[in-house]
Amino acid sequence: MRRDELLADRAMVGTVLCRALARRTDEWLQRIFSAEVADSEGIAMVAVGGYGRAELCPYSDIDLLLLHRDRPDIGEIAPRLWYPIWDEGLKLGHSVRTPRETRDLAKTDLDTATSLLDARHIAGDAELTADLTADNDNQWRRSARRWLPLLAQRVAERHRRCGEVAFKLEPDLKQGRGGLRDLHALRWVEAAVFEMDDADSRRLWSDYEVILAARAELHRTADRPGDQLLLQEQDGVAAALNYGDADELMGAIASSARSIAWRSDEIWAWLRESEMPPEWRRRLRRRQSRNNTELDAGVVVQEGRVVLADDADATNPCAALRLARAAAAHELRMDRTSLGRLNKHMAPMPDRWPDEARKLFVDLLMTGTEAPPVIEALDQMDLFVRILPEWAPNRSRPQRNAYHQFTVDRHLCEAAALAADLVDRVDRPDLLVLGALLHDIGKGYPGDHTEVGMELVADIAHRMGYPPTDVDVLVAMVEHHLLLPDVATRRDLEDPDTIAEVSRKARTVQTLRLLGALTEADSVATGPSAWSKWKASLVRELVARCAHVMEGGDIDEITSRFPTPEHRQMMEAGERLVLGEGDTLVVIAPDQHGMFSRVAGALALSGLRVLLAAAHSEYGMALERFQVESTLGLEIDWPQVTAYVEQALAGRLAIEARLAERISTYEVVPDLAPKPVIAPKITVDNESSSTATIIELAAQARMGLLSRVTSAMSQLGLDILSAKVQDLGGDVVHAYYVRDHDGQKVTDDHHMQEINLALQHAIDSCNA
Known about the structure:
- There is one protein chain.
- By secondary structure, the protein is of the alpha+beta class.
- Helices cover about 55% and strands about 15% of the residues.
- It is built from 32 helices and 16 strands.
- It has an eight-stranded antiparallel sheet with strand order 9-10-12-11-15-16-14-13, sandwiched between helices. A four-stranded mixed sheet has the order 3-2-1-4, sandwiched between helices. A four-stranded mixed sheet has the order 5-6-7-8.
- β2 (about 60-70), α4 and β3 (about 90-95) form a beta-alpha-beta unit.
- The relative contact order is 0.05.
């Protein structure tokens, strides 16, 4: 069929490539049909589905209907047509039916009915194809009220199953929300009940081309069928489509997918409100009962939507904010015509915001989960950037790692929405939601996003009319938005120096509590890897301890809780203990070289991930406490775990050999691991603690890493006082408080060089 020459032409991409492949396939099938069918009267070869739309990606199925008018020889003809396709190695979707059989099936089967809406004649009796497609089009329109609710249900189910194209790390370009199938569904709706607005149609097809081009290149570069754009394929697809890099590709896909998703939602909502299938009618009637109710100055409800009144000043940005606040507060959609008026006439927000604008903006954010879709609507109509120009570089900006689940702009909206649920924890709810919306706004700009963000937020807050003291608080929220999670997960909360340093940076209890709420909102909005019960408890404890000290409390009352008096008593008496309860393992045993590493190895062999560890030695005894979780989310089998620990302590467990065996069985293949969040590195900090050296290492998450790293430390004569492990979705950050064999901080340069060498070797050995 000579497809290879088309696929080799890298200048041919997107729709051009797909249509060229469809034309080449048409010509080839027409030759086969002519050779195998002497008499074409009453028989036709019809392309349906994606092939019918002439959107043939390199590994798309060839979907064909062999239509016949009761031809007695159809059983002989069909195989002669199908076998050349199979011999070519192409995937064929085929059916053989009469027009009546096809029409009857289309009356009861939605997939058949929609596939025929995209039908295209290939060969044979063209009149037969034309009659069938005309009949199906008429039948589709007549059956619209029966089919459209089912189609809407299918769309919603598909979105739930496949997620968002714009925000998934590895999106499903076809089935995901904002993907190709959404526009197919809109074509089918359009064939039934309405003609799409020209502006929407142009934008949708432009966005569709972006997604289709990515899918076609995914097939070509991966040399296999597939709709999910995996991380390892994104660089190749970006290069093939002449994007600067994979980030630029994923940004374009995110922008187009957001546009498709929003316009699709608008059209489905309009359909529910205008066509009114029976199951939708009651909901609309409830909304219409509020028609012409004034919700705000110049804002009313009409037919279930928030509408800008005819006499409202569409040049005033406050009009847009009133419309948005009313929509979010009453859980209604904004009227498209009203948004169009604003898009045409609204001026940018002035350099000094009116007080009303600041209040409206904060009120919108305070609606919580209702705010993001409203902000999305404003953004799709290019209104949000007129209110907040600094937003523009962050629009659809991807964050391509397993740690983040959203683009930068959506992350900020989600963080603000989550912050609105936490306002009872702070004295200034307005600063909390605004700080959450703006904390990462520097990510769209060159340079360190925190430093850039501080400058941007200072300017924004000043324009909004906040007094200097509030501006300082907002800037501090941006500057220190990572302070609490970093300290809580990497520093010893028993160390008075830790509490003193955080208190100094927060400056006031008000800012501290704002940072505490921001941390939770930011982390939950980031993704599952960024927040956990363990992390939440550490952040809450850190905030409580710092607040205690900042409010005049004694620091000794909140530190030195490890070891407990009971532990000290057991150690003085020389008693042994290996006890696992809940999520914590406590070990008391005669002090021995490498004890921490041995216990850590036993835990790794038991399928447990260490989150937090502390160690103490006294009276010739060692005390170790490990907080753990199952790597598989299973209940911890403590009898088995403690048996492993006992064997390890007795030197009867081949930890290294067993770890190597377990790694070869269970470890993730490196090429399929998530993209690293941070660069691998080792740092030594002698400033943050007055009593110990802090060694921090960042590395790709690997089974047995803790055991090998702590073994290396033991070999260099380091005593581990505490350890914390932060999971960053494919990466981990370990923080160790250590002392040398004399109980002092590590200050010798040669010793530090050897430590770095040993730890790097331990990391490399886990990646080998």
